[in-house]
Amino acid sequence: MSGYGKAFTRMREEASEAWQDYTHHAFVEGMKDGTLPQAAFLHYLQQDHLFLTHFARAWALAVVKSQTHAEMLAAVGTVTALVCEEMQLHIGICEAAGIPRKQLFATKERAETLAYTRFVLEAGYSGDLLDLLAALAPCVMGYGEIGARLAQQAGSQVYADWINTYGGDAYQELCRTVGEMLEAALIHRLGPEYETSPRWDRLCQTFRTATELEVNFWQMGLTP
Ligand SMILES: Cc1ncc(CN)c(N)n1
């Protein structure tokens, strides 16, 4: 198992090829060894700041789609972590690199950012919490896996702030919470044998598409 729960592990297995491309993309390996050009990193961060804006909206939608207090708590906690920690990281790194907050908030959205964020939001608008979580999980847990691996393997300090955020205790705890939320939400709606539900394949397909959109997002980062 992955450490982020059974449902996540099973969905990841169903998307194993795309998952490998996502978590071991050249962009990621460039952060690991410090060879990623700073221009690519800053370009990615500016798009990612936009991404996080929409992503926080999608997690707020998860509050709307919640059916239990535990689901609401997990969703609210994730909105808070996104707005108060992740977005702050991006604002701080950009400001330190000479990109003021005003410029960051005026970033023009790339097609890859638009495609991914609107895919996630649409999954939530047209579906229930399970459809939404299947689209959100690759983002949360993928960065958790990447951060944990890079914290172990990084041979350079260049991207230490980024690596320490996603490899750190607070983000890893968030991944475990979202993994538990996904598992409990599936059991609550489909029962403990949720993998035998007619909905399971579709949920795995949503998870896989979101994973492929993550690959495209890294690739966009390499082409400022
Ligand atoms: C594109 C993307 N995917 C995931 C994460 C981690 N929340 C992120 N910041 N950006």
Automatic annotation (TrEMBL):
Role noted for this protein: Catalyzes an amino-pyrimidine hydrolysis reaction at the C5' of the pyrimidine moiety of thiamine compounds, a reaction that is part of a thiamine salvage pathway.
Associated pathway: Cofactor biosynthesis; thiamine diphosphate biosynthesis
Catalytic activity: 4-amino-5-aminomethyl-2-methylpyrimidine + H2O = 4-amino-5-hydroxymethyl-2-methylpyrimidine + NH4(+); thiamine + H2O = 5-(2-hydroxyethyl)-4-methylthiazole + 4-amino-5-hydroxymethyl-2-methylpyrimidine + H(+)
Domain Thiaminase-2/PQQC: 14-222
Swiss-Prot/TrEMBL keywords: Hydrolase, Thiamine biosynthesis
Tree of life domain: Bacteria
Any one GO biological process: thiamine biosynthetic process
Name recorded for this polypeptide: Aminopyrimidine aminohydrolase
EC assignment: 3.5.99.2
InterPro entries listed in its UniProt record: Haem_Oase-like_multi-hlx, Thiaminase-2/PQQC, Thiaminase_II, Thiamine_Salvage_TenA
Family, per entry: Belongs to the TenA family.
Gene Ontology cellular-component terms listed: cytosol
Pfam families: TENA_THI-4
GO molecular function: thiaminase activity
